[in-house]
Amino acid sequence: MNTPSTPPASAALTGRALAFHRRGKAILDGIDCAVFPGEVLGILGANGAGKSTLLALLAGDEIPASGEIALNGVALARLDQMARARQRAVLPQQATLAFALPVRDVVAMGAYPFPELSPAGLDVLVSQALHDAGIAHLAARAYPELSGGEQQRVQFARVLVQVRAGRQPGEARYLLLDEPTASLDPRFQHSLLQVASLLAEREHTGVIVVLHDVNLAARWCHRIALLAQGRLVASGPPADVLQGAALEQTYQLSCTVMPHPQQPSRPLVLFA
Amino acid sequence: MNTATLAIAPSRPWRSPAGMLGLLAALLMLLALLSLSIGALGIPLQAIIRIGFGDIPANDPEMQLWRDILFDVRLPRVLFGALAGAVLALSGAMAQALFRNPLAEPGLIGISAGGALGAVAAIVLGSGSLLVLGPAAFAGSLAATACAYHLGRRYPGMAGLLLAGVAINAICGSLIGLFTYLADDQQLRSLTFWGMGSLAGASWPQLSLLAPWLLLLSLLALRYWRALNALLLGEREACHLGFPIKALRRTLILLMALLIGPLVAATGGIGFVGLVVPHLMRLLLGADHRLLLPAAMLGGACGLVAADWLARIAVVPAELPIGIVTSLIGGPFFLYLLLKGRAA
Known about the structure:
The complex is a heterodimer of chains A (272) and B (344). With 272 residues, chain A is an alpha/beta fold.
């Protein structure tokens, strides 16, 4: 992993001592997390562990009961929606479109926070994102006609445009992905995370991704945070975090961890 | 990239966005000329053109009569019809994006019912003169919208607003019923006709009062095309794209109320334009609001000028209320669009 060249100390998306309740029930409690430009942070955990809630807090969709979130050193609460949108993009679990728009128009929406962008500049960004998401051949199709997996890749292309548009040199951006691989086949699961990983390493972006597939996370994430019942169980590089005890505590399921046959430094997790 | 244009018009290369807007504008001019020319009294097109250029011989009483009819009656009416149609369809397109539903229209949140209640109250309780009726309808429409908005805000998302709108519409409906029950025969007749809508009241003073207001607000509304497109993705997604959803919702609702309120006051109930025209334009041009909003304005203007013309010539020398014409054509047309399938 390339460490970004001397980022300012504040270049990060950080959450400190985050707590969140819903109807008196603690969903998250005492969570500290941070993602820095140049890395992919994977969030793993069982259903209901609070992964999506943590992402929603970091995106500013929900307001934490206590704790602080900062985007590049500025408290998130002090940034308006436009200032947030110009620094981070969020991929929803799924997005339906109320009326039919062509795929290319949906992808181009990623540039809405950047009205200063020239049409030519936008065209380049959109074409690149279509290519990266592997949907260049779908550009002219109507979005609602696509399959669920294709729609997810269109949304991914849209957030790629948003996270790349109007960048100043050295500016840190963040990409929040909520289960981006849920409806993708193995090939596109890997190619999406590869694009995210390259984006992090080469384009000064911090990526947070909520995943269910532990081995996918082991392959593509620079760091992993394990969540169980709203608390952080472990956090660190995949080889350190993906250990039997921590995984069994997280998923309540016995598992075997072994070195990957082809890449011994990468753990391979087999459940049950 | 040609793919972008192809996406909007797969098999119809002549359907470029600019071409379509031009076509709609040409259609509007044609309908306006027809409406100016043909009526209870026919005025030849050549005469209209000569009058338009100020070429009116002083010793020609027929030309002078035509000029009076054109300038005092037909022109303000055509202009007002175009303006009203444009505003109704524009608000309809906004409401459909805001509610993410092709069946939505501004009336959902009580704008029209509130206006009707104000008007009926003015007819039954007051003198029913236009000076009282207009402001009463406007006030009623704003009050009903404000009620729906503030009550609906307590629930997350648009569901609360919709439910509050349903309740406000029901309450307005029952109060209108109560006033109808209390009304005497003369009042009953005026409120029935008011409810069916008419452009017959169009005049230069009314136009000079309403046109700047409506045009300015419409231009302001056109600037929200990005936000309306983003809303198609969902409210949370619109937020993530930088649009503060609560403020946006409030602004759009206020814009609709300020656009529709004065119209309801001036024209009465004109149905289906706000529902059908945006739908039709979406079928023709796609759902991109940068194009859809101006197209809806032109389409709505065409629709209402045509409907008013039909209302004037259908039962000469009398005239039909325009709301009857729009609903009579719009209703079946809407059913046709629905049955034609999942195109939009």
